[in-house]
Amino acid sequence: MTLPTADWLAALAEMDAAVATALAELDAFEARWPDAPPLPTQSPLEALEARLTGWDERLVAAGRLAEGLERQFADGAAAVGRWNEAFTTWRGRIQQPAE
Fold first, then answer.
1. How far is residue 17 from each of residues 5, 6, 14, 76, 89, measured CA to CA in Å?
2. Is 17 inside any structural domain?
3. Structural domain of residue 93, as residue ranges?
4. 70 falls in which pLDDT band (50, 70, 90)?
5. This protein's superkingdom (predicted)?
6. 2: left (phi over 0), alpha (psi -120 to 50) or beta
7. Measured on CA atoms in the order 38, 42, 44, 50, is the torsion positive or negative?
8. How many domains does the chain contain in total?
9. CA-angle at 71, arms to 65 and 77, nearest 5°
10. Backbone angles phi, psi at 2, to 5 degrees
11. Do the domain assignments include residue 36?
């Protein structure tokens, strides 16, 4: 039994030509788009992790902002409560009959 080496060599030559054609087309494409963004240097997992780290930082900043706003609202509510108490006391004294 003889091996079909001629067929294999022909198939390899055909694949080599196809790869060379594809590379030439890629070079032509890159030449038409000189300002195209570079291919990512990170793996998809690393890119996702970097994006999630950014979100973590944003969430922490949003939490701090929310805490600050809660303190401001609590301070404002306390001030309104004190004003209401002072006004109620003042009104009560004004409405008392003179002795």
1. 18, 16, 5, 77, 96
2. no
3. 42-98
4. very high
5. Bacteria
6. beta
7. negative
8. 1
9. 135
10. -100, 145
11. no
CB atoms closer than 10 angstroms to residue 96: 8
CB 14 within 8 A of CB 21: no
Tell me the pLDDT band of 16, cut-offs 50, 70 and 90.
Answer: very high
| pTM, two decimal places | 0.41
> Quick check: 50 and 42 in contact, CB under 8 A?
yes
Contact 12, 20 (CB under 8 A): no
Q: Is residue 70 part of a domain?
A: yes
Write the single-letter amino acid at 90. W
Residue whose structure tokens are 């006004």: 87
CA distance 39 to 36: 9
Residue 98 pLDDT > 70: no
66, part of any domain: yes
For the chain, list the strands marked E by DSSP: none
Contact 30, 36 (CB under 8 A): yes
